[in-house]
Amino acid sequence: MSKVLVIKNYYKILRVKSSATKDDIKISYRKMALKYHPDKSQDKLSENRFKEITEAYQVLIDENIRKIYDQKFLHNLTSVNSTKLILIYIFVLVAVFSFILWYLGHLSVVS
Question: Considering the domain boundaries, does residue 12 fall inside one?
Answer without folding.
Answer: yes
